[in-house]
Amino acid sequence: MAASNSGGPISGEAAQAFGEGIGLVWGRWTALQMAVENQWGGRDSRAKADQFGESILSWFCGSKGTHSSFSTHSPIIYSSLRRDPVCFSGPHYYEDLVDMMYDYLSENFNADFEDNSVEEVIIFPVHSFPA
């Protein structure tokens, strides 16, 4: 299932609003908040959760049709989106995003979220990404 628009640009303002929406969803995601509060990712669990949300935005708003994976070693482009007037998106697929989210949670929080919450929380970004 495709999870984005036809690959056209979105404004920096739209990307910022989209990122704020992701942040709100992440703040209400019970399983992720439990991982943060109980420091399943170590002392920097909060930073990892924040980076996770920024990585979702980065995945949707990758440069000119490309997207980055959720590597903990690659830079996040979220801060640059605040300055850039345009954000490009390419074809994105729901299954790829879900798989990357599970990988990120496993690698960074030592957690396997088996409550289907990943699939539930990703509905917002998939359906809200500016078309």
Main features:
two-stranded antiparallel sheet; 131 residues; 7 helices; mainly alpha; 56% helix; Pre-rRNA-processing protein TSR2 homolog; globular; Pre-rRNA_process_TSR2
Detailed description of the structure:
- Keywords: rRNA processing.
- The longest helix has 17 residues, at 12-28.
- Mean pLDDT is 76; it is low at 1-6 and 63-86.
- The protein starts with 8 loop residues before the first strand and ends with a helix.
- It contains 7 helices and 2 strands.
- It is globular.
- α2 (30-37) runs antiparallel to α3 and α3 packs antiparallel against α5 (94-109).
- It has one domain.
- The chain has a two-stranded antiparallel sheet.
- It is mainly alpha-helical and 131 residues long.
**Could you report the average pLDDT, rounded to the nearest whole number?**
76
By DSSP (H or I, 4+ residues per run), the number of helices equals 7
Helix content: 55-70%
Radius of gyration from CA coordinates: 14 Å
N→C terminal distance:
15 Å
The major beta sheet can be summarized as: 2 strands, antiparallel
Hey, roughly how much beta strand do the residues contain? under 5%
Adjacency order of strands in the biggest sheet: 1-2
The structural class is mainly alpha
Shape descriptor reads globular
Secondary-structure element pattern, one letter each = EHHHHEHHH
Low-confidence stretches: 1-6, 63-86
How many separate structural domains?
A: 1
Strand tally? 2
